[in-house]
Amino acid sequence: MLTYLIVCPLVFLAGFVDAIAGGGGLISLPAYMLAGIPAHNSIATNKLSSCMGATVASYHYYKKGFMKLKLCIPGILMAILGSSIGSNISLLISEKLLQTALLVVLPLVGLYVLKGNALKDSSDQLEWNNKLYIQCGIIALCVGIYDGLYGPGTGTFLMILLTGVCHLDLNSAQGTTKAINLTTNITALVVFLMSGKTLIVLGLVAGICNMIGNYIGSHLFVKKGSQFTKPVILLVLILFIVKIVTGN
After folding, report:
1. What CA–CA distances, in Å, run from 241 to 2, 5, 235?
2. Sign of the C-alpha dihedral, residues 99, 21, 26, 195?
3. Closest to 76 measured CA to CA, from 160, 154, 182, 218
4. Fewest C-beta in 10 Å: which of 74, 75, 80, 103?
5. What are the tens digits of pLDDT across the range 18-63?
6. Total-model pTM
7. What angle, rounded to 10 degrees, do the helices at 226-246 and 25-34 form?
């Protein structure tokens, strides 16, 4: 019972944050470990609850018309390709080296969010052309490589790059991000389920909490947009820095 009392509220919070800004795993994965679940079981079980929650947010954004399939489908394919590349690179690169690089990169990303064009809900008419599709594909590939290489904050980085580089409106960026993230999460979940590491009952109960968090967060995003997205993303970046510094 103590395990559920620790995990469920934090996984709910993770779902809320993830629906708005990505990066919910920075809250939910440590929650499982805090409850004393071994690392491999924590990762596998977290993937189950996260997939359940992400499905709720993705469905809501799809219904609202945020998912532009002509961007989502190529983005998904490029992200899967990038993830497979990143997974192989991870065998060659020290995780400590990557974490050190991120300690330099993350504050710069935070400054860019505060001062740059990221997360601004532009009212300009976006030109849907080959340049845009190529830009989005390259971003999905690069972030996919990062996801396979390390992973945390993937959705956050997608949101920042799709709005800042491609100048997607906030809604289209959110829809594209969720489509990519949900696909890669489901792919990973299948692997973990086959490995037998997933704690099914705990994952399903926590998944319901994550679904509620995603439901509330996605509805709040639709109503408030950038008013909430920027501060929540900055919070995710701070959590990410703390995670790397403390090693948790």
Report:
1. 28, 26, 10
2. negative
3. 182
4. 103
5. 999 888 888 988 899 889 998 888 888 998 999 999 999 999 999 9
6. 0.84
7. 40
